[in-house]
Amino acid sequence: MRNPIASGVLYESDFAKLNSQIESAFEKGTGSTPLEIRDKNVKAIIVPNLSYSLISTMSSWAYKDIAESPPPLTFIVLGSSSQKSDKILLSLQDFSTPIGIVRNDRNLVNRLLDSNSLIDETSHNSETSIELQLPLLQYVSKNSLDGLRILPILTSTLNETIIKNLALKLSKMDNVIFIISSNLLSYGPLYNFAPFRYNVKTELENLNNRILESVLTVNFIDLLSIANKYDFYSVSPILVLLEVLRLKNIRTGDILSHDLIQQDKNFVSVASIVYNSNI
Question: Three-state SS for 270?
């Protein structure tokens, strides 16, 4: 069992307080909790990887669309690893949160095992990017928690061959929805990424716009080029998704909410983005 490490730090640890925290995020963001009607057809979302106090309102937009789409058999949750590696890190553990236990779809995990991947419970136990999405997912799946299944994946590779190999396998999995836990851009001394010396805000906004455009237009090559130029490996999960979407002939995403958060000399670009089926 993978126990929570972010509860009480990045989100509330008490069940009732956490439920209230998420409910409040929906009311402040979308204006209401999700409807019972399932008239949407979401295939993937990109949501921020930060404290709920900063991003749960933004994330509520994408999760509302998930709640109003037919439930999949499995949610494929890709998070970024804080250490760069060309290995795809998998887990066989179920994940515990203050709301309950989320089961791991071990059959799908086994389908991903190859020379580029490995079971690494130590990394999964110490990273928060996947955990942060689970209470929100549980909240919008409250009527079907017993059947809730995830395929948890950590990735930080910028190796095009490895990314495309993983994406090809994922694209062949039926009845799934992708949840990408990733910020678009993290800039400043806190993130050891500050290449601009002059006109920092302008240069940062230009870079952010390029990243955002490549993500919304499913342009894998452009985003990979940006990531390699700046060794920006935290967008690896987004790169995997863009290749999956290309293989599924999904060419555009919809941005529901976006912000460039500034904290002292640090900036984080976050967004709530959805990709819908063409059918």
Answer: strand
